[in-house]
Write a structure and sequence with these properties.
Distance between the termini: 17 Å
Strand order of the largest sheet: 2-3-4-12-5-7-8
Shape: globular
Number of helices: 12
CATH class of the largest domain: Alpha Beta
Radius of gyration: 20 Å
CATH architecture of the largest domain: 2-Layer Sandwich
Order of helices and strands: EHHHEEHEHEEEEHEEEHEHHHEHH
Number of domains: 3
Bound molecules: nicotinamide-adenine-dinucleotide
Strand content: 15-25%
CATH topology of the largest domain: Ribosomal Protein S8, Chain: A, domain 1
Length: about 350
């Protein structure tokens, strides 16, 4: 493991995206979200995604300096095309529109279809919360083969379809941020574990033999195994809902054989934003949220547990713990240096500060 200061990591991502031809705003949005994911403790959606982006650009699957385009605009309902642009740009632009319409109408639905990977969904919920809005996000993942087996199956039928909800606190940081893959673990967590040569929790992946295992390598073998849906039939059902509301509703690409894809990571996302003041008393809501969260955390502990956390607390703690150093495993470090070299950047010097 090498600890890299977040500022240095930010400079690294900025330099690599500049090498790809990204304009300064795109460089900054990509670096903000990837390093932000590492800071929040989600290495699966951090700088380790950069090789996928460089590969996407070099094979013409990811468009540099692209933007959303409006497919439909009915005021409180907007549908956008992601145009295979950087998800850090399309996600940001989607949320800018959602925030504007949410403030104007009290409630807005903004769909983003077929963007390149939009990364950590909590980042978009934080953008809405910073503007004082509640947000909900249903997301699908298409463009490549299925990754997650439905409850009762051993063949993958959908991907890690994330679901996210955030409620802003008085300072407009989220008081609650539920941001999760609907598989027991995200694919990126299996990638990070595989790169680091460690196991994943037993039963989070299933081999092609139909046997649950702790070996992340089954996801990278040929043919690959599958991730296991969280929460048995309930999580499997939520993943299906994310596929249908996140993509089918918008006319985005769903993951099924008639849409074979080209190996890209494409996300479609339906975002619903709510302005608390349009529904009730926002001050009363904040006080109710705070007292409820305190009540939840006060539960007597189950055996083997040291504390009760509420959604979003682990990310806040990770930001404090990682403020001056983000651990990068040697596999990911090597991949980062290699992609930097590909775009003419001395990555080792940037990361190690040589
Ligand atoms: N763009 C994509 O295609 C895509 C696909 C899948 C996942 N993702 C992202 O991957 C990231 C990781 O997802 P994940 O499911 O591995 O996250 P996770 O399991 O680490 O956390 C899920 C949620 O549970 C909360 N949590 C974690 N530990 C807790 C505890 N002990 N007590 C109470 N709450 C707790 C977290 O605050 C978070 O809200 C997310 O940011 C998600 O948006 C993106």
């Amino acid at each position: 493991m090498t600890d890299v200061h977040p500022d240095r990591l930010h400079q690294f991502v900025t330099a690599v995206t500049a090498g790809l031809g990204s304009d300064p705003l795109e460089q900054q949005l990509v670096a903000d979200q990837l390093v932000g994911a590492n800071l929040a403790g989600h290495d699966s959606h951090g700088v380790g995604m950069l090789p996928t982006y460089v590969d996407g650009v070099s094979h013409g699957r990811l468009k540099v300096n692209g933007h959303v385009s409006v497919a439909r605009d009915d005021g409180a309902i907007v549908v956008l095309d992601g145009n295979r642009s950087f998800g850090q740009v399309t996600g940001f632009e989607t949320m800018e529109i959602a925030i504007e319409r949410g403030h104007e109408h009290g409630l807005a639905l903004v769909g983003l279809r077929d963007s390149f990977h939009i990364g950590r969904i909590g980042h978009w919920a934080e953008q809405a919360a910073a503007a004082g809005l509640i947000s909900m996000h249903f997301v699908n993942v298409a463009g490549h083969h299925a990754l997650v087996a439905p409850h009762g199956g051993r063949e993958a039928r959908f991907a890690t379809n994330p679901f996210c909800v955030a409620i802003p606190a008085a300072d407009n940081s989220p008081s609650v941020l539920l941001d999760m893959a609907t598989s027991r673990i995200a694919l990126g967590k299996a990638r990070v574990a595989n790169n680091a040569g460690v196991k994943v929790p037993n039963g989070t992946v299933i081999g092609t033999d139909g046997i649950l295992t702790d070996d992340p390598g089954v996801m990278f073998s040929s043919p690959p195994g599958a991730l296991v849906a969280m929460g048995e039939h309930k999580g499997s059902g939520l993943a299906i809902v994310c596929e249908l509301l996140g993509a089918a509703l918008l006319g985005g690409t769903t993951l099924q054989p008639k849409n074979p894809g080209d190996g890209s990571v494409l996300n479609s996302m339906t975002t619903i934003v709510i302005k608390p003041g349009a529904v009730g008393d926002p001050v009363g809501l904040r006080s109710e949220v705070d007292s409820f969260l305190t009540w939840v955390r006060s539960s007597e502990l189950a055996e083997g547990s040291d504390e009760v956390l509420t959604p979003g607390q682990p990310e806040k703690r990770a930001r404090i713990a990682r403020a001056t150093g983000i651990p990068i495993d040697s596999g990911t470090f090597g991949e980062l240096v290699a992609v930097a070299t590909q775009v003419g950047v001395d990555g080792e010097a940037l990361l190690a500060g040589a």
